[in-house]
Amino acid sequence: MRRSERILAVLVRSVGLLACSAIVPAFMPFAWMEATHRWLGMGELPDVPVVHYLARSVSLLYAAHGAVVVYLSFNVHRYLPVLRLTAVVVVFCGVSLTAIDACSGMPWFWTAAEGPFLILAGAVLGWLTGRVGEHRERTVEGPRRPGQ
């Protein structure tokens, strides 16, 4: 495995494992969510069904996405097209979440961290998939002869 492939696999696996950690809030007691919400300086967390549902379902979706991403990391060559798509989707989500966070009045540190991290991770993922893809094409096709 080439260096760029190893780096790609480590990046994909790391981001996937980070997303998998969202499984914790999906099942944590609501009192912990309330305490975290207050600790982050966002006031009282409304104790209504839609908040319970959204907090847990979004966390569960993050964790499920993370599990899929970890799986992809074990064979970056095979899943290169999916990883390329993932890079585009992650950048799009990063840009969208930055706007959503800013418009929603999220704390500055949240807005400065969440979206920009995803934009950077998606851009690096896209760059690395390009590098791995270039090497793969050169290896599969072999050197070009004059006139091809």
Task: Write out key terms for the chains shown.
148 residues, 6 helices, mainly alpha
TL;DR of this structure?
It is built from 6 helices and no strands. With 148 residues, the chain is an all-alpha fold. The radius of gyration is 19 Å and the shape is elongated.
Description:
The chain has 148 residues and is mainly α. It has one domain (3-141). The protein is built from 6 helices and no strands. The radius of gyration is 19 Å and the shape is elongated.
Given the structure, what is the number of helices? 6
Give the ordered list of helices and strands: HHHHHH
How many individual domains?
1
Distance between the termini: 29 Å
Find the count of extended strands (DSSP E, 2+ residues). 0
Q: What's the average pLDDT?
A: 91
Please summarize the sheet with the most strands: none
Strand pairing plus helix content: what structural class? mainly alpha
Provide the β-strand percentage band. Answer: under 5%
Roughly what percent helix? over 70%
Shape, please?
elongated
What does the radius of gyration come to?
Answer: 19 Å
| Low-confidence parts | none
Structural topology:
Blueprint: H1 3-20, H2 23-27, H3 30-39, H4 49-73, H5 80-104, H6 108-141
Helix pairs in contact: 1-4, 1-6, 5-6
